[in-house]
Fold each of these.
Amino acid sequence: QVQLLESGPGLVKPSQTLSLTCSVSGGSITTNYYYWSWIRQPPGKGLEWIGAISWTDSTSYNPSLKSRTSISMDASKNQFTLQLSSVTPEDTAVYYCARRVGVDEHDYWGQGTQVAVSS
């Protein structure tokens, strides 16, 4: 059973960089053909895919967030991280990490972590 757990600060100030880590257990993030996503849900809105990193360390991003987003992995720790720069209150959301198994399809999810952007 694959388990994912998000961690990071719950409050970030405007213009700063939001950094979150997803720790994966029960499976390796370098297993062939899996991608590992970051997804968020702002209050009262639907899910928004932020980006993903593959088992070969290649990345893909939502075009609307690409200029501010960086996803990386640490295979030795079986973790992958999200950095979102120049945040505004519109980046306030519950942030999830998940394993992607197809286009818009994720089979394992973390519990989510609430991040608020406020001064």
Note: The mean pLDDT is 96.
Amino acid sequence: LMLAAGVWGGLVQLGGSLNLSCKASGFTIDYHAIGWFRQAPGKEREGVSCISTVIEDRTYYADSVKGRFTISRHNAENTVHLQMTSLKAGDTAIYYCATVDLLTSGCYPAGVWGQGTLVTVSS
């Protein structure tokens, strides 16, 4: 089971947009919830956004990204995307995708991690 994270343009100016992708191998995202986490230097890892299985059809967003980030799945590509807009300096971090448990209390890693991808928002 593998997740491969990618980013189209890792360096962006304040207020700009980026799209992260997370492609699964060895399993189908239809039946696994997938999420994005990030970790900035000197800070703890935080959950950013998660999407449930196709059957549950739910999403989760951290308060810090609500209204700016959109998570979606592209089933044919077995890929989850995170569209990030209105980027702030505080969004600078290494972003990781992972399989997750999406509960009413939040979104929690469930074991399979992709490699980190660096997002830098410059002023």
Note: The mean pLDDT is 92.
Amino acid sequence: MCSCRRLGGGLVQAGGSLRLSCAAFGRTIRNYNMGWFRQAPGKEREFVSVISWSGDSTEYSDSVKGRFTISRDNTKNTVYLEMNSLKREDTAVYYCGGGGTLKPPRMAFWGKGTLVTVSS
């Protein structure tokens, strides 16, 4: 299991930016692919982005491609999600996870979610 502390969620206006951080403790993530998923109210959890253990490969959902950027700093045991040009439909609880595959994007362990609310 991984305990991942999420930082950076909150309320932002449409068109704004937020940066989410997922700092893992209790597990070293440098050998794991890591990713972000989200769950909007009344909807199922959906894929957002994944990054390979080395950081060389990334994947994005079509809905966030060109607006979101995933990155990682293995020296800090942390994964980031930079979110720009936010839209109301980006409102969701965002979850970081890891230990799974890039294609298809699947996570083996999860952290607790952080709420991102985008207002108009």
Note: The longest strand covers residues 18-25.
